[in-house]
Amino acid sequence: METTVADLTLEQKVGQLFHVGFPGTEPTDEIRSLIREYHVGGVIYFSRNLETPEQTRTLSRSLQRTALEEGAEIPLFLSVDQEGGTVRRLPYYTETPGAMAAGATDDPDAAETVARVTAAQLRSVGINCNLAPVLDVNNNPDNPVIGVRSYGEDPDEVATFGERYLEALQSADVVACGKHFPGHGDTSTDSHAELPVVDADGDRLEDVEFRPFERAIDAGIDAIMTAHVAFPAITGSETKPATLSRAVLTDLLRDRLGFDGLLTTDCMEMNAIADTVGTERGAVEAIAAGADVVLVSHSADRQRRAIEAVLEAVETGELAEDRIDESVERILTLKSRRDLRPERSGAESDPAADSDLAALRDLSRDAVTLVRGEFDTALPFDPDEPLYIVGPRTTGGSPAAETQSALDVLAAQLTDRGFETHVLEVDREEPADLSSIPVGSQLLCCAANVARNPAQASALERLLDASHSPVVVSVNNPYDVHHLPAVEPFLTTYDPSAGNLRALVDVLVGDERPRGRPPASLR
After folding, report:
1. Where would you tag: which of 183, 195, 373, 399 has the fewest CB atoms within 10 A of its CB?
2. Count of structural domains within the chain
3. pLDDT digits (tens, 9 = 90+) for 440-451
4. Beta-carbon-side half-sphere exposure of residue 385 (alpha carbons within 13 Å)
């Protein structure tokens, strides 16, 4: 017999509204306590929790066993941000390209392929909820947190790619969670650091920001995540995050757009919340506004205090117990609809179908884009001549993204293709010594988030002043072209996933030509 809302105590009901994270690759005493005593409804994984497929599988089984045998006897949502590209947490299996790389192919089948591969990978290690797709329209080239995590700049294209992704994910029994409602695409600040404000009027929000979410709702998306962003046109306030606004979550999303799925907050420890109302008070206000799930990703102390704050709000009458029951009903309904059980067995090798892995390689090949200039002016490179590679060692950007070393990967792949490579790192603090590069040499300049590391622009200017003729490639963000001298040719891979970098090398050596379609603002 399935658990119903009536079967649960108030403490169990409130606990189901919380998803929490923890450090380490094995269950800690704190996370076991949160499951046993506070009855949390879900656990979110980060890279810190994941080492190998078997370790993750064992972790998932252990957490589910604790919930089913010692907690509220309700299975957990086990979630992760596995968007692909710059935001991915699994350190094993085939890397999937990110959303903008898929968008650059101009083929929505690409989004479906990524979702099928991702679903197979997640299910094999017991993860049943993916915090994707990103449904934000990246209509601000200076956006520091969304950027290439978006399918692009056109709301209808974002909607189409997002639909294909969510349908493929959910057809494999993985919960899809579209984010970040009402839209994080037109921001120039990162909500991990402070509260962004979108000043657009209601008509623009209808035409751009809302459209992908409306289409996702029509397609039956399981869950939607809120944005810690202020929308004065909706709320009348530049200091009220959407996450805490009843006008956004209930009046707009529930009543007007008709969404009756699971509504989760973004992490309540992000500074846009933690440094304003605070995580604990924010949890109460988010639930009052209409959120079903409160995400607190890191601190066990904050997690406990937030749960206790909500319990106190119900006991004092600030929050009606009926409001809690509405959310628990949605949670139990979705948990019943999706198979949350971990796989009983699984291979260490990638569980995705060979045909889908081959389609991923085609996706990467079709994504590499010539943003500016002509391919034939400086390419292909000649393996009989030395090749100098200049760029930052890592591609870290927003706290949401993983730090990766595209420079080393590219150098290794080019060395494997017969090149004598010389790598010169561009450091944030110290000017790179570029004097060792002979004029007339083959020169590849890699760029990654230049706005965050302007030393890259300075290095390129010095190379141009010294009469060098580099090929420039952004391995992470096509909008880097706005922050660099006007060099041609300028290529982009959209993200430094392994397949995209391999496809770039194929272009650099002349085995392929760039086929991707750049975002509209760069055409």
Report:
1. 399
2. 2
3. 999 999 999 898
4. 15
